[in-house]
Each structure stands twice: as structure tokens, then as C-alpha cells.
Amino acid sequence: MGKRKKSSRKPTGPRRKEPLETAFTCLFCHHDKSVTVRMDRKEGIAQLFCKVCDQRYQSKANHLTEPIDIYSEWIDAADAAENQAATTARRPAASSSRSHPSAVFGSDDE
């Protein structure tokens, strides 16, 4: 039996935790890092707002919620609202207010 080769892997130890983003790009005005999230975990509320165009969004939050989660919810809610508006705009009316042309089969002059 031969000897085991030494591994070139780094020693396993505590990993450094990368901080998550806290400033985001606005969906409406497209300014970078203009959207921030305020979290009130005690009250269970998270508020997102844009410093430039003053767009706002509010959602429920718990002890596991992060600002990126609220930003993602905002994106989903904006997409859903846009899809709903597009659906109602394309939906045809149930009835028409136009009168139907009356059919003329013959005239009284004949």
C-alpha cells in the first residue's frame, strides 16, 4: 500500500459570511442604489422606498426576512400588477353598444 497524497485543499474553518446587498436599483426610475429597505422586526413590517421617485412598498417581515427578500417581493408584486393591468386592458367587453344594421329584404315600392 502506498502513502496518501497530501490534499491541496484549504483547511476547513469558519467561513466568512458575505454581507447581502441593502441598496437596490429602482424598477421605475432605474437609479442604482436608490432603493432601501427598513425592517421593523418587532412590529413585523418591512418598508421599501426609492429616494429618487418615492415609490413605496410594504410587506410583512419576520426574524428570517432580509432586505433582498422584500426587494424580490416588490419585483413580483410589480410584475403581477403589470400583468393584471394588461389582462384587463385586452379583455373584450361583454356587450357592444353599437346597434346592429337592420336587414332590408324588400321595399314597399315594389
Q: What's a quick, concise take on this entry?
A:
Transcription elongation factor implicated in the maintenance of proper chromatin structure in actively transcribed regions. By secondary structure, the chain is an alpha+beta fold.
List the SSEs and their pairings.
Elements: E1 23-24, E2 35-40, E3 45-50, E4 56-60, H1 67-90
Antiparallel strand pairs: 1-2, 2-3, 3-4
InterPro entries: Elf1 (IPR007808), T_Elf1_sf (IPR038567)
Biased composition (Low complexity): 82-103
GO molecular function: RNA polymerase II complex binding; zinc ion binding
List keywords for this structure.
110 residues, alpha+beta, N-terminal domain of TfIIb, four-stranded antiparallel beta sheet, 1 helix, 4 strands, 22% helix, 17% strand, elongated
Describe the structure.
- The protein is of the alpha+beta class and 110 residues long.
- It has a domain at 23-83: N-terminal domain of TfIIb (Single Sheet), CATH 2.20.25.190.
- 22% of the residues lie in helices and 17% in strands.
- The chain is built from 1 helix and 4 strands.
- The protein has one helix at 67-90; strands at 23-24, 35-40, 45-50, 56-60.
- The chain has a 4-stranded antiparallel β-sheet with strand order 1-2-3-4, covered by helices on one side.
- A hairpin with a 5-residue loop joins strand 3 (45-50) and strand 4.
- It is elongated, with a radius of gyration of 30 Å.
- The relative contact order is 0.12.
